[in-house]
Amino acid sequence: MNDPQRRGVVYLVALASIIVILFGVRASASILNPILLAAVITITVLPVPSQLSKRGVPGWLSLVLSILMVVLILVLVIATVFFSVTKLATELPMYLEQGAAQASEDLSSVNEATVSIQIDQLSNTIGVIAEDFLSGILDILVTFGLALVIFFFMISAALALPTPSRMGLDPDSPMIKRVT
Question: pLDDT of the chain along its 180 residues, tens only?
């Protein structure tokens, strides 16, 4: 087997591997999304307990305050989404009536039976869209809840990790300072 053929096989295997990995990630998205969200939240919030500890707050209290801060932010985000959806649900009938009136004006040249059928189909379609939308909101809430639980474990484990000096490393080393 000559070199160009071998290179072609390597490229083909690499491409197949990438495709398999991408499909695997896509298939496991419902598991990976909360874990990655919790990891991002943990990385973002991790400096807060150490700063609180430096100011004399006990370790357990700094952990609890950090968790409460994240819970408060997530509750605010969820409340914002909830109130937005509620407002949309209260205003949707008005928009539907305006849309039906506009549709009947636009279709005045068409048979009235056709207009009423199209308005009924529009109502059914909007009902399906609203159902899918509410299902998506519920999925988001479940993802946030699962990410929050994973976050609790991640932040407590991250704070329990040994410091560089307990691992036998020099805490004054420039590399350790950059990593920290």
Answer: 567 788 888 999 999 999 999 999 888 888 888 888 888 988 888 888 888 888 888 888 888 898 899 999 988 988 898 888 788 878 877 877 777 777 666 666 555 555 555 566 666 677 777 778 778 888 888 888 888 889 888 888 877 776 655 555 666 778 777 776
CA distances from 17 to 6, 24, 138 (A): 16, 10, 34
Q: Are 180 and 162 in contact (CB under 8 A)?
A: no
pTM over 0.85: no
Smallest CA-to-CA distance from 36 within 160, 144, 137 is with: 144
Q: What are the residue boundaries of the structural domains of the chain, listed by start?
A: 3-179
3-class SS string, the chain: CCHHHHHHHHHHHHHHHHHHHHHHHHHCHHHHHHHHHHHHHHHHHCHHHHHHHHCCCCHHHHHHHHHHHHHHHHHHHHHHHHHHHHHHHHHHHHHHHHHHHHHHHHCCCCCHHHHHHHHHHHHHHHHHHHHHHHHHHHHHHHHHHHHHHHHHHHHHHHHHCCCCCCCCCCCCCHHHHHHC
